[in-house]
Design a protein that fits this description.
103 residues; alpha+beta
Length: 103
């Protein structure tokens, strides 16, 4: 089992692209269909990185440890939550929660 300090050090070094790959792979292993807009040019700015579908629909914005959300990303998150959607802002340090939610 990985200790918390080691998990934190690893989480601090993972970039967003790698993190997204890990979340997508874990979701797939647990039966989730995933959607990610690969080329966001022409799309409305700020839409969450992933839409995950299984027994419910989850919208997830993913950030590296020090990544910052934009105003548009925060607005989308707020709008989704206000509409009753399940929305998460996840960082690599949130991996225990990610496992719980996607298990």
């Amino acid at each position: 089992m990985m200790t918390a300090p080691l998990r934190t050090r690893i989480a601090d070094t993972i970039n967003e692209k790698l993190f997204q790959g890990l979340v997508t792979e874990y979701a797939g292993l647990n039966g989730w269909a995933t959607y990610h807009t690969r080329d966001s040019r022409g799309s409305d700015p700020g839409f969450p990185d992933l839409v995950l579908v299984r027994d419910r629909v989850i919208f997830a914005e993913l950030k590296a440890a020090r990544g910052r959300t934009t105003n548009d990303q925060r607005a989308w998150g707020s709008a989704l939550e206000a509409a009753g959607a399940i929305y998460y802002l996840w960082r690599p340090a949130d991996w225990p929660e990610i496992e719980t939610v996607l298990r």
